[in-house]
Structure formats: C-alpha cells, structure tokens
Design goal:
The relative contact order is 0.11. The chain has a two-stranded antiparallel ribbon with strand order 1-2. Helix 1 packs across helix 3 and helix 4 runs antiparallel to helix 5. 82% of the residues lie in helices and 3% in strands. It has 153 residues and is mainly α. It starts with a helix and ends with a strand.
C-alpha cells in the first residue's frame, strides 16, 4: 500500500507541476493561442463530464487531468478528485482534494472538498488494513517468507 500512496503523491505532484507548465505556455502564447487553449480545455471538460455521467470514471479522470493541464481551475481539479473517487482510486482522489484545498476556493465548495477528502482517507485506511491482512495471510501460508524494504520476498 505504500507504493499506492507514493503513486498518489507523485500524481498530485504531477498535477502541481502541470499547472506551472500550462500557465507558462498560455502566458507566453498570446491572446489568440490562449483562446484556443481555453476552447480545448472547455472541450476536454465537457468530454470528461459526459464520460463521468456515463460511468466511465477512468476516462473522465484522464479528460479532467488534460483539461486541468491546459487551464487549471479548482472546479476541474475537484471534478478530477470525484472521478478518481468514483473509480476507487482513493489515493489519487485524496491528492486531488488536497490540491483543491490549497487553492483560493472557499465556501461550500471548499467544505465539500474537505468532506470528500475525509471520506477517501477512510478508504485509504481500509485499503491499508486489507493489504496488511493479505500480507499476514500470505506469510501464514508460506507464500511470503520475509519482507525487506516493503518488498515481499
């Protein structure tokens, strides 16, 4: 489970780094290019919303991630977290919600992001407990004889 947490943190870091890249690209591109970027970001967001509505949460998260890369916004970031959460990707969802809470978002939307973060942290703890039970069962059956540095041997 430590690997999953690391992957989630890396994904969160990737979101933050992508924001810097996207903002720099748009800032240096000029008004016509910025308008095209905005249009593509809106298209990606609309596509993500449609995929989410259809229950394709993995597809929605990909589209929201791309929209966010093009035009960062707390709303798109929140929707990315929702897509991850619905897809059962609790670690990634937590990273997205934490990133939302680091923005200037306030009011009811901020409260909802905090509530969703609490919910996915419960999911993460349950996954951690499940992984620990699975590892103990494997040790009892002799499938795992020792572990070193988090790797089962």
């Amino acid at each position: 489970m430590a690997a999953a947490r690391c992957a989630g943190l890396v994904a969160s870091l990737g979101i933050v780094l992508a924001v810097g890249d996207a903002r720099a690209d748009v800032a240096t591109a000029g008004p016509p290019a910025a308008a095209r970027v905005d249009a593509v970001a809106r298209q990606r967001t609309a596509r993500a919303a449609e995929l989410y509505r259809r229950g394709d949460f993995a597809g929605a998260s990909d589209a929201y991630r791309e929209a966010y890369r093009l035009r960062p916004s707390p709303g798109v970031l929140f929707n990315l977290g929702q897509s991850y959460r619905q897809d059962g990707r609790c670690v990634e969802a937590a990273g997205a919600y934490r990133a939302v809470l680091q923005t200037d978002l306030d009011g009811a939307a901020r409260d909802l992001a905090a509530q969703q973060l609490d919910a996915v942290e419960v999911c993460i703890r349950a996954l951690d407990r499940s992984e620990a039970r699975r590892h103990r069962a494997m040790r009892r059956t002799g499938l795992v004889t020792m572990s070193a540095g988090g790797a089962a041997l």
